[in-house]
Amino acid sequence: MKKLILKTTAILLILAGVVACGKENTDNVDFHEITIGSANPVINYVANGIEFEFCLLNEQGEPATIFNEGKNFSFYFQCTNNDVNKELEIDNGFFPDLLLSGFCYVISQQNGTIGYPCTLRPYTMEYRKYPLYGEDNRYAVTVPWNCEGWGDLNCYPESFPKESLSAGKYYTEFTHKFRFLTKKNPIDIPISVKINFEIK
After folding, report:
1. Distance, CA of 74 to CA of 112 (rounded, Å)
2. Which of 78, 118, 175, 186 is the most exposed place for a label (fewest CB within 10 A)?
3. Which range among 22-31, 97-106, 137-146 shows the weakest confidence by mean pLDDT?
4. Which three-class secondary structure state does DSSP give residue 171?
5. Whether the model pTM is above 0.70
6. What pLDDT digit, counting tens, does each position of 88-125 carry?
7. Could you tell me how far CA 48 lies from the centroid of its own chain?
């Protein structure tokens, strides 16, 4: 009986290993989370000389996790190439891919999915690359929840205006593998972030 249990355990461990190998390894993804009322409401992370910043902004443009009901807020993302010796580039799918990963997506902690303030429109465009070095070493985007009159790249508002969030607790999160192009091999940096916030 002991031999049967040992054999069964060994087989299950082998199968688990095979299944794990078949899935994308997310163990090495750096996870960063901000709690409601955090003294530092900004996620800041540096990898390979590239600095990432993610936060929510109040109407005054200040990072925050608590907002007044009926007031607008924005999602802010920035990446900066701090290595003057790295001539990095990004392509024109950089922002749409970030949206598809969940950037700007809001979920209610009580009621589940709320959605995006904007959506991707169908498009065809010529593939282009843009510098992320020298004077152009920074890419930043601010997306307001109520994005009336706002439009960036291939994103457009779903409604004008987006309905304000009611009082409650929410979060926004995304997991994304950022790709930066070089003259040789691309640099891939996977990141997972979550910001908890409250509307009062």
Report:
1. 20
2. 186
3. 22-31
4. strand
5. yes
6. 999 988 988 998 899 999 999 998 889 888 766 665 66
7. 18
pLDDT digits (tens, 9 = 90+) for 132-141: 999 999 999 9
Q: What is the pLDDT of residue 28?
A: 72
Smallest CA-to-CA distance from 43 within 34, 51, 73 is with: 34
**By CB neighbour count within 10 A (0-12 exposed, 13-18 middle, 19+ buried), where does 74 fall?**
buried
Instruction: Quote the tokens at residue 52.
Output: 């990432």
Convert 93-155 into a string of H (helix), E (strand) and C (coil): CHHHHHHHCCCCCEEECCCEEEECCEEECCCCCCCCEEEECHHHCEEEEEEECCCCCCCECCE
Alpha-carbon span 68 to 182, nearest angstrom: 44
Q: 38: buried, middle or exposed (CB in 10 Å: 19+, 13-18, 0-12)?
A: middle
3-state DSSP helix/strand/coil % of the chain, to nearest 5:
15, 40, 40
